[in-house]
Amino acid sequence: MDVSSKEILPPSKVYFYTCSALAREIFFFPLCTGHFYCTKGYEVDRGRYDSFLLIYVVAGKGYVYDGPQRLEVRAGEFVLVDCYQPQHYGTDDNWEIYWLHFDGKVARQYYELCIQNGPLLRPDDAAMCARQLQRIYEAFHGERSVNEADVSRRIVNFLTAFMQPPERAKRQNKATDIVDETLSYITENIAKPLPLASLAQNVSMSPFYFSRLFKRETGFSPHEYIMHARVNKAKYLLKFTTLPLKEIARSCGFSSECNFSTAFKKISGVTPCSFRAGNA
Description:
The structure is a single chain. This protein has 280 residues and is of the alpha+beta class. The protein is 47% helix and 24% strand. It contains eleven helices and nine strands. Strands 1, 2, 3, 4, 5, 6, 7, 8 and 9 form a nine-stranded antiparallel beta sheet that branches. The mean pLDDT is 89. Residues 180-278 form the HTH araC/xylS-type domain. Keywords: DNA-binding, Transcription, Transcription regulation. InterPro entries: AraC-bd, Homeodomain-like_sf, HTH-like, HTH_AraC, HTH_AraC-typ_CS, Tscrpt_reg_AraC-type_HTH. It comes from Candidatus Allofournierella pullicola.
C-alpha cells in the first residue's frame, strides 16, 4: 500500500501480513515490510512493537539509537533493532531504505548472536543480504501469493550471514545464489514442465548434487518446492480471478484439471472449489 506522510515520499510502500498458525510455530515470519524514500525529519520514536526490525540503507544516511548512544547508518549498511524495547531512529538528511519487521520462536537467540558487536552490521556479502531482504519485499509487492517457507529461508540466510566469519559466509552465499537463481527460474517458468535434469543443467550441476544442495537450502526437494509453488500461484488465481479451473491448472503447470485438483487437495487440505468459495 502507498504511504502518505510529509517525510515519506512516493513511491514509498508498506505491506502488512498476518501469517498462518503453522508459520508462527515453525518459521521466522514477517509482520510488515516496506521500501521508503525519506526526507529530513523522518523519525520513529516509539515504545514496544513486538518484533525485530532489519533496516538496509540503499542510499543516503540515517541514525539509530542503541540505548543512549546514537549510531550513524550509511548506504550499504544494516541495522538490527530489538523492537521489544523502545526504538528511536530516523534521518537528518535523507535516505532510501528497505525494512522488515519479523519474529519467530528462536528470533531472540539469532538476534543476540548477530548483535554481539553492536546493532550496526556490515556483513562480508552485503549484496546477498540486501537481495534477501529485497526479495521478501518483492514477494509482497508482486502479484503472487507469499510462500511462508521461502520468506523464512531468506530471513535465516541474512541472519546467518550477519553472524558468520567471512570464509564460511562466502561458501554459504554461493549456495544461496544457486538456489536463488533456481527459485527465480521456477517462478518465471511455472507453467512449463520443470524436470530435475533441466533445473540442474541451468546451474551447471549434476542432478544428484543439485538435489542435495536444494534440499539443504530450502528444506524441500525440487519436486516438492515446485508443487508448493504451483499450488501457491493457483491460490492467488482462485482468490483474485474468475478463471476456470482448467485454465488455472494450465497456467500453473499442471498437466490436467484432475492432477491439479489432486495436488491442490494434498497440499492445502481442501479442493480448489472449496478454497475459492472461502471454505479454507
